[in-house]
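Same chain as my last thread, 439 residues:
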Amino acid sequence: MSKYQVYPEYKDSGIEWFGKVPYEWNSSRLKFEVSINMGQSPSSDDCNQDGYGLPFLQGNAEFGVQHPIPKQYCQVPRKLATEGDLLFSVRAPVGALNFSDQKYGIGRGLCAITNYCDLTVSFLWWLIPVVRAELDSVSTGSTFEAVSAEQVENVVFFKPSLSEQTQIANFLDHETAKIDTLIDKQQQLIKLLKEKRQAVISHAVTKGLNPNAPMKDSGVEWLGEVPEHWQVGAIKQFSKIESGHTPDKKKEEYWIDCDIPWVSLNDSKALKIVDYIKDTKYKVNELGIQNSSARILPANAVIFTRDASIGLSAITTRPMAVSQHIIAWLCYEDQLKPEFLLLIFYAMQEEFERYTFGATIKTIGMDDVKSLRAAIPSLEEQTTIIDKAFNIMAAMDAAISKAESLVALFQERRTALISAAVTGKIDVRNFKAGDTHVA
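reply #2:
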């Protein structure tokens, strides 16, 4: 923020998170500046998805970038938002915003802020995400965060003049648009890199590295044509399938002094990003293993989620047990390398989606697991493909990580810029679009 000018004189706001504010800015509360209309849910009998009545918004699930995208309608709404109102989410996530571009019925998850006097809606759009910190500190609810009408009305902030409010909003519209463009470019790059990474993996395990190799029809849709000398068959021909189990959770003695890693769906987050799993969120003990269908599997097992997110995979680095939601594949050493099988599973993500398409609960049955097919080259060729693919994956992962770091940095700068402007830490009264900075 050092490139921006500051106000000539400040005073203590008396509010820790707000800090010092420009001397001429005045303290106020939302209830003194606007009207707050809390939403109310209508009878479910009055709601429909067929377009009868007014568009109805239950909460922020229907929010778009700036304007809502209604999914249902209500013939007898109990509370209304009118065009130009600011729609404010009072349930998780507290503080999400949209502009009302027409008349809406609003439910309990929203309130409509209207009747502005000495507060512009454009300034309030930028102010609320900052004062949201205050709302977060008072939000309550065991099922979801929520704030009451009184809590929203009593939000404290410091108000600049109307002309300053307009100038701050114009400044933030302009500057955040530039930052958003940078973020969008990096996000597009991340998308392209991930697509290219997936394409490299898929090509490696279906076409190999020799572009001149004679090809044959695999007879398997996801594989297409494969090198003529590769063996096509069910993956179970090249590895042993092991399913897992969960020791009885009611038996406390099974879950104390635990030292045996136990892979479960609680490890899904890790399985999305690692090739090798070294530890697990939960562990079991030997007594739990002995009194269940679970067993300790050797290192270098390829584990695979069969429920929730299908096909999340990794290679174990030490002996581990698995839950019933996990399949473990023990590769036959003379036929299949664990890393090649891992690449196969990475390449099969769209295939796994086909097995679970339309299902409410994503799962893949054991019959389907046993029928999974792949094309397998010799061990020597597998080693060459593994080395090449993992090197390319590492380079792309590094590029993706760099781009993600830039996105995070831009987002931090965006947040800091908004906060600085609406709390008066920088003076943008002389801002003109096209300026590289505020002189």
